[in-house]
Protein backbone atom coordinates (compact mmCIF):
# COMPACT_ATOMS: atom_id res chain seq x y z
CA UNK A 1 0.00 0.00 0.00
CA UNK A 2 2.85 2.38 0.85
CA UNK A 3 4.52 1.68 -2.49
CA UNK A 4 1.25 2.35 -4.26
CA UNK A 5 0.97 5.72 -2.52
CA UNK A 6 4.52 6.61 -3.53
CA UNK A 7 3.85 5.67 -7.14
CA UNK A 8 0.61 7.67 -7.15
CA UNK A 9 2.45 10.66 -5.70
CA UNK A 10 5.16 10.40 -8.36
CA UNK A 11 2.56 10.16 -11.11
CA UNK A 12 0.74 13.24 -9.84
CA UNK A 13 4.02 15.17 -9.65
CA UNK A 14 4.97 14.19 -13.18
CA UNK A 15 1.56 15.16 -14.52
CA UNK A 16 1.75 18.51 -12.73
CA UNK A 17 5.23 19.27 -13.99
CA UNK A 18 4.76 17.77 -17.42
CA UNK A 19 1.62 19.21 -18.93
CA UNK A 20 -0.74 21.20 -16.76
CA UNK A 21 -2.59 22.67 -19.72
CA UNK A 22 -3.24 19.22 -21.21
CA UNK A 23 -4.67 18.08 -17.87
CA UNK A 24 -6.94 21.13 -17.68
CA UNK A 25 -8.19 20.54 -21.22
CA UNK A 26 -8.92 16.87 -20.38
CA UNK A 27 -10.84 17.85 -17.26
CA UNK A 28 -12.74 20.46 -19.21
CA UNK A 29 -13.66 17.89 -21.87
CA UNK A 30 -14.83 15.41 -19.23
CA UNK A 31 -17.02 17.96 -17.50
CA UNK A 32 -18.56 19.14 -20.76
CA UNK A 33 -19.46 15.54 -21.56
CA UNK A 34 -20.92 15.08 -18.09
CA UNK A 35 -23.04 18.22 -18.23
CA UNK A 36 -24.49 17.06 -21.54
CA UNK A 37 -25.65 13.95 -19.67
CA UNK A 38 -27.08 16.09 -16.90
CA UNK A 39 -30.75 15.71 -17.84
CA UNK A 40 -30.56 11.93 -17.60
CA UNK A 41 -28.68 12.02 -14.34
CA UNK A 42 -31.12 14.44 -12.71
CA UNK A 43 -33.93 11.90 -13.16
CA UNK A 44 -32.19 9.44 -10.85
CA UNK A 45 -33.61 9.23 -7.30
CA UNK A 46 -31.78 8.47 -4.09
CA UNK A 47 -33.15 4.94 -3.94
CA UNK A 48 -31.80 4.10 -7.34
CA UNK A 49 -28.44 5.51 -6.42
CA UNK A 50 -28.21 3.70 -3.10
CA UNK A 51 -29.23 0.37 -4.57
CA UNK A 52 -27.66 0.51 -7.98
CA UNK A 53 -24.49 2.43 -8.75
CA UNK A 54 -24.90 3.42 -12.37
CA UNK A 55 -22.01 3.87 -14.82
CA UNK A 56 -22.82 7.58 -14.85
CA UNK A 57 -22.57 7.84 -11.09
CA UNK A 58 -19.26 5.98 -11.16
CA UNK A 59 -18.07 8.49 -13.73
CA UNK A 60 -19.22 11.34 -11.50
CA UNK A 61 -17.57 9.79 -8.47
CA UNK A 62 -14.32 9.46 -10.46
CA UNK A 63 -14.07 13.13 -11.45
CA UNK A 64 -15.83 14.72 -8.47
CA UNK A 65 -13.35 16.74 -6.41
CA UNK A 66 -14.94 15.43 -3.23
CA UNK A 67 -15.17 11.85 -4.42
CA UNK A 68 -18.77 11.67 -3.19
CA UNK A 69 -21.68 9.68 -4.70
CA UNK A 70 -24.33 11.51 -6.68
CA UNK A 71 -27.13 12.90 -4.49
CA UNK A 72 -30.17 14.91 -5.45
CA UNK A 73 -33.10 16.47 -3.71
CA UNK A 74 -33.97 16.73 -0.04
CA UNK A 75 -32.80 19.13 2.61
CA UNK A 76 -29.11 19.24 3.39
CA UNK A 77 -28.05 17.26 0.34
CA UNK A 78 -25.60 18.48 -2.26
CA UNK A 79 -26.88 19.08 -5.78
CA UNK A 80 -24.10 17.41 -7.75
CA UNK A 81 -25.03 19.10 -11.01
CA UNK A 82 -24.51 22.50 -9.36
CA UNK A 83 -21.27 21.19 -7.91
CA UNK A 84 -20.16 19.99 -11.30
CA UNK A 85 -21.13 23.25 -12.97
CA UNK A 86 -19.12 25.13 -10.34
CA UNK A 87 -16.21 22.80 -11.01
CA UNK A 88 -16.61 23.34 -14.73
CA UNK A 89 -16.45 27.12 -14.25
CA UNK A 90 -13.38 26.69 -12.06
CA UNK A 91 -11.62 24.61 -14.72
CA UNK A 92 -12.47 27.18 -17.37
CA UNK A 93 -10.96 29.90 -15.20
CA UNK A 94 -7.82 27.82 -14.64
CA UNK A 95 -7.53 27.12 -18.34
CA UNK A 96 -7.78 30.78 -19.31
CA UNK A 97 -5.44 31.84 -16.53
CA UNK A 98 -2.85 29.41 -17.92
CA UNK A 99 -3.35 30.91 -21.37
CA UNK A 100 -2.93 34.43 -20.01
CA UNK A 101 0.19 33.41 -18.08
CA UNK A 102 1.70 31.72 -21.12
CA UNK A 103 0.81 34.70 -23.31
CA UNK A 104 2.37 37.05 -20.76
CA UNK A 105 5.58 35.01 -20.73
CA UNK A 106 5.78 35.05 -24.53
CA UNK A 107 5.16 38.81 -24.56
CA UNK A 108 7.93 39.32 -22.01
CA UNK A 109 10.36 37.24 -24.08
CA UNK A 110 9.46 39.20 -27.22
CA UNK A 111 9.89 42.47 -25.34
CA UNK A 112 13.33 41.39 -24.09
CA UNK A 113 14.36 40.44 -27.64
CA UNK A 114 13.19 43.85 -28.88
CA UNK A 115 15.14 45.58 -26.12
CA UNK A 116 18.25 43.59 -27.03
CA UNK A 117 17.76 44.57 -30.68
CA UNK A 118 17.44 48.23 -29.67
CA UNK A 119 20.60 47.93 -27.59
CA UNK A 120 22.46 46.54 -30.60
CA UNK A 121 21.23 49.46 -32.69
CA UNK A 122 22.62 51.85 -30.10
CA UNK A 123 26.04 50.21 -30.26
CA UNK A 124 26.41 49.26 -33.90
CA UNK A 125 26.94 51.91 -36.57
CA UNK A 126 24.78 51.22 -39.62
CA UNK A 127 25.74 53.32 -42.66
CA UNK A 128 22.35 53.01 -44.37
CA UNK A 129 20.61 54.23 -41.24
CA UNK A 130 23.13 57.09 -40.92
CA UNK A 131 22.61 58.25 -44.52
CA UNK A 132 18.87 57.63 -44.37
CA UNK A 133 18.45 60.09 -41.50
CA UNK A 134 20.25 62.80 -43.46
CA UNK A 135 18.15 62.08 -46.53
CA UNK A 136 14.96 62.35 -44.49
CA UNK A 137 16.20 65.61 -42.94
CA UNK A 138 16.64 67.26 -46.34
CA UNK A 139 13.38 65.81 -47.65
CA UNK A 140 11.53 67.31 -44.69
CA UNK A 141 13.37 70.57 -45.22
CA UNK A 142 12.13 70.73 -48.83
CA UNK A 143 12.62 74.12 -50.43
CA UNK A 144 13.07 75.93 -47.11
CA UNK A 145 16.30 77.89 -46.80
CA UNK A 146 17.45 77.27 -43.23
CA UNK A 147 20.57 79.24 -42.33
CA UNK A 148 20.91 78.10 -38.72
CA UNK A 149 23.60 75.58 -37.88
CA UNK A 150 22.37 72.26 -36.50
CA UNK A 151 24.29 70.39 -33.77
CA UNK A 152 24.37 66.58 -33.76
CA UNK A 153 21.92 64.67 -31.58
CA UNK A 154 22.89 64.34 -27.90
CA UNK A 155 25.33 67.23 -28.30
CA UNK A 156 26.74 68.96 -25.23
CA UNK A 157 29.72 70.90 -23.98
CA UNK A 158 31.81 68.80 -21.57
CA UNK A 159 34.60 71.02 -20.27
CA UNK A 160 37.01 73.54 -21.82
CA UNK A 161 37.12 72.77 -25.54
CA UNK A 162 35.86 69.21 -25.21
CA UNK A 163 32.43 68.31 -26.63
CA UNK A 164 30.28 65.21 -26.96
CA UNK A 165 27.53 64.06 -29.32
CA UNK A 166 26.06 61.20 -31.33
CA UNK A 167 27.47 60.36 -34.78
CA UNK A 168 27.62 63.64 -36.81
CA UNK A 169 25.69 63.68 -40.09
CA UNK A 170 25.90 65.86 -43.19
CA UNK A 171 23.47 68.44 -41.81
CA UNK A 172 25.75 68.94 -38.78
CA UNK A 173 28.96 69.70 -40.69
CA UNK A 174 28.54 73.49 -40.73
CA UNK A 175 28.01 73.51 -36.97
CA UNK A 176 31.18 71.50 -36.35
CA UNK A 177 33.47 73.57 -38.51
CA UNK A 178 31.98 77.08 -38.16
CA UNK A 179 30.62 77.10 -34.61
CA UNK A 180 32.98 74.70 -32.80
CA UNK A 181 35.96 75.20 -35.13
CA UNK A 182 37.06 71.65 -34.40
CA UNK A 183 40.64 70.48 -34.66
CA UNK A 184 39.86 66.82 -33.97
CA UNK A 185 37.15 64.22 -33.74
CA UNK A 186 37.50 61.10 -31.57
CA UNK A 187 35.23 58.25 -32.63
CA UNK A 188 34.74 55.28 -30.30
CA UNK A 189 33.20 52.79 -32.74
CA UNK A 190 35.16 50.02 -34.52
CA UNK A 191 33.24 50.31 -37.82
CA UNK A 192 34.68 52.09 -40.87
CA UNK A 193 34.09 55.84 -40.93
CA UNK A 194 31.72 57.11 -43.70
CA UNK A 195 33.29 58.54 -46.84
CA UNK A 196 31.16 61.71 -46.60
CA UNK A 197 32.47 62.42 -43.10
CA UNK A 198 36.06 61.73 -44.10
CA UNK A 199 35.79 64.06 -47.10
CA UNK A 200 34.29 66.81 -44.93
CA UNK A 201 37.09 66.46 -42.37
CA UNK A 202 39.76 66.53 -45.07
CA UNK A 203 38.36 69.74 -46.53
CA UNK A 204 38.01 71.31 -43.08
CA UNK A 205 41.42 70.28 -41.76
CA UNK A 206 39.92 68.19 -38.93
CA UNK A 207 42.00 65.26 -37.68
CA UNK A 208 40.30 61.92 -37.00
CA UNK A 209 41.22 59.68 -34.07
CA UNK A 210 39.56 56.28 -33.86
CA UNK A 211 39.64 54.14 -30.72
CA UNK A 212 37.18 51.39 -31.55
CA UNK A 213 35.57 49.66 -28.59
CA UNK A 214 32.50 47.57 -27.83
CA UNK A 215 29.90 48.71 -25.32
CA UNK A 216 29.51 47.27 -21.82
CA UNK A 217 26.88 44.54 -22.14
CA UNK A 218 26.09 41.24 -20.46
CA UNK A 219 27.47 38.70 -20.19
CA UNK A 220 31.11 39.14 -21.23
CA UNK A 221 31.40 42.30 -23.36
CA UNK A 222 33.32 45.05 -21.58
CA UNK A 223 35.28 48.14 -22.51
CA UNK A 224 39.01 47.43 -22.01
CA UNK A 225 40.52 49.89 -19.53
CA UNK A 226 43.63 50.40 -21.64
CA UNK A 227 41.51 51.59 -24.59
CA UNK A 228 39.72 54.04 -22.33
CA UNK A 229 43.07 55.35 -21.09
CA UNK A 230 44.26 55.75 -24.69
CA UNK A 231 41.10 57.68 -25.57
CA UNK A 232 41.50 59.96 -22.52
CA UNK A 233 45.09 60.70 -23.50
CA UNK A 234 43.88 61.93 -26.91
CA UNK A 235 41.05 64.01 -25.44
CA UNK A 236 43.06 65.69 -22.68
CA UNK A 237 45.91 66.78 -24.98
CA UNK A 238 45.33 70.50 -25.68
CA UNK A 239 46.85 70.28 -29.16
CA UNK A 240 43.87 68.13 -30.22
CA UNK A 241 41.29 70.61 -28.92
CA UNK A 242 38.62 71.71 -29.72
CA UNK A 243 37.68 68.04 -29.95
CA UNK A 244 34.38 66.20 -30.37
CA UNK A 245 33.88 62.77 -28.80
CA UNK A 246 31.22 60.50 -30.26
CA UNK A 247 30.20 56.85 -30.64
CA UNK A 248 26.99 55.87 -32.42
CA UNK A 249 24.26 57.45 -30.29
CA UNK A 250 26.52 59.36 -27.89
CA UNK A 251 25.12 57.46 -24.92
CA UNK A 252 27.10 54.52 -23.57
CA UNK A 253 30.71 54.46 -24.72
CA UNK A 254 30.81 58.25 -24.88
CA UNK A 255 29.11 58.33 -21.47
CA UNK A 256 31.80 56.07 -19.99
CA UNK A 257 34.58 58.28 -21.34
CA UNK A 258 32.92 61.45 -20.02
CA UNK A 259 32.34 59.77 -16.66
CA UNK A 260 36.07 59.07 -16.39
CA UNK A 261 36.84 62.70 -17.26
CA UNK A 262 34.55 63.70 -14.40
CA UNK A 263 36.56 61.48 -12.06
CA UNK A 264 39.66 63.46 -13.04
CA UNK A 265 37.68 66.57 -12.09
CA UNK A 266 36.93 65.02 -8.69
CA UNK A 267 33.19 64.86 -9.23
CA UNK A 268 31.23 62.67 -6.81
CA UNK A 269 29.89 59.38 -8.20
CA UNK A 270 26.36 60.65 -7.59
CA UNK A 271 26.95 63.59 -9.92
CA UNK A 272 28.76 61.42 -12.48
CA UNK A 273 25.98 58.82 -12.62
CA UNK A 274 23.31 61.50 -12.79
CA UNK A 275 24.95 63.01 -15.87
CA UNK A 276 25.48 59.58 -17.43
CA UNK A 277 21.81 58.60 -16.95
CA UNK A 278 20.53 61.85 -18.43
CA UNK A 279 22.40 61.26 -21.69
CA UNK A 280 21.81 57.48 -21.75
CA UNK A 281 18.06 57.77 -21.04
CA UNK A 282 16.03 55.58 -21.35
CA UNK A 283 18.70 52.85 -21.63
CA UNK A 284 21.19 53.50 -18.86
CA UNK A 285 23.41 50.46 -18.28
CA UNK A 286 24.46 49.35 -14.81
CA UNK A 287 27.67 47.91 -16.30
CA UNK A 288 28.63 51.34 -17.65
CA UNK A 289 28.23 52.90 -14.22
CA UNK A 290 30.16 50.04 -12.64
CA UNK A 291 32.93 50.53 -15.21
CA UNK A 292 33.18 54.25 -14.40
CA UNK A 293 33.33 53.53 -10.68
CA UNK A 294 35.94 50.77 -11.01
CA UNK A 295 38.12 52.44 -13.66
CA UNK A 296 41.66 52.92 -12.33
CA UNK A 297 42.71 56.44 -13.39
CA UNK A 298 46.22 56.23 -11.92
CA UNK A 299 47.98 55.91 -15.29
CA UNK A 300 46.08 58.69 -17.06
CA UNK A 301 46.43 60.95 -14.01
CA UNK A 302 50.21 60.51 -14.05
CA UNK A 303 50.36 61.20 -17.81
CA UNK A 304 48.15 64.29 -17.43
CA UNK A 305 50.20 65.68 -14.55
CA UNK A 306 53.47 65.12 -16.40
CA UNK A 307 52.11 67.15 -19.33
CA UNK A 308 50.36 69.76 -17.14
CA UNK A 309 46.94 68.86 -18.53
CA UNK A 310 45.33 68.98 -15.10
CA UNK A 311 43.36 70.57 -13.63
CA UNK A 312 40.91 70.89 -16.50
CA UNK A 313 39.75 74.45 -17.04
CA UNK A 314 36.14 75.30 -17.77
Automatic annotation (TrEMBL):
Keyword Hydrolase on entry: yes
Pfam families per record: Y_phosphatase2
SUPFAM superfamilies associated with the record: (Phosphotyrosine protein) phosphatases II (SSF52799)
Keywords: Hydrolase
Sequence intervals crossing the membrane: none
Alphabetized InterPro entries for the sequence: PFA-DSPs (IPR020428), Prot-tyrosine_phosphatase-like (IPR029021), Siw14-like (IPR004861), Tyr_Pase_AS (IPR016130), TYR_PHOSPHATASE_DUAL_dom (IPR020422)
Catalytic activity field: 3,5-bis(diphospho)-1D-myo-inositol 1,2,4,6-tetrakisphosphate + H2O = 3-diphospho-1D-myo-inositol 1,2,4,5,6-pentakisphosphate + phosphate + 2 H(+); 5-diphospho-1D-myo-inositol 1,2,3,4,6-pentakisphosphate + H2O = 1D-myo-inositol hexakisphosphate + phosphate + H(+); 1,5-bis(diphospho)-1D-myo-inositol 2,3,4,6-tetrakisphosphate + H2O = 1-diphospho-1D-myo-inositol 2,3,4,5,6-pentakisphosphate + phosphate + 2 H(+); 6-diphospho-1D-myo-inositol pentakisphosphate + H2O = 1D-myo-inositol hexakisphosphate + phosphate + H(+)
Record EC number: 3.6.1.52
One cellular-component annotation, GO: cytoplasm
PROSITE patterns the record matches: TYR_PHOSPHATASE_1, TYR_PHOSPHATASE_DUAL
Chain ranges of the Tyrosine-protein phosphatase domain: 154-304
Keyword Hydrolase: yes
Molecular function per GO: inositol diphosphate tetrakisphosphate diphosphatase activity; phosphatase activity
Family label: Belongs to the protein-tyrosine phosphatase family. Atypical dual-specificity phosphatase Siw14-like subfamily.
Name this polypeptide is given: diphosphoinositol-polyphosphate diphosphatase
Species this protein is from: Maudiozyma exigua (Yeast)
Lineage of origin: Eukaryota, Fungi, Dikarya, Ascomycota, Saccharomycotina
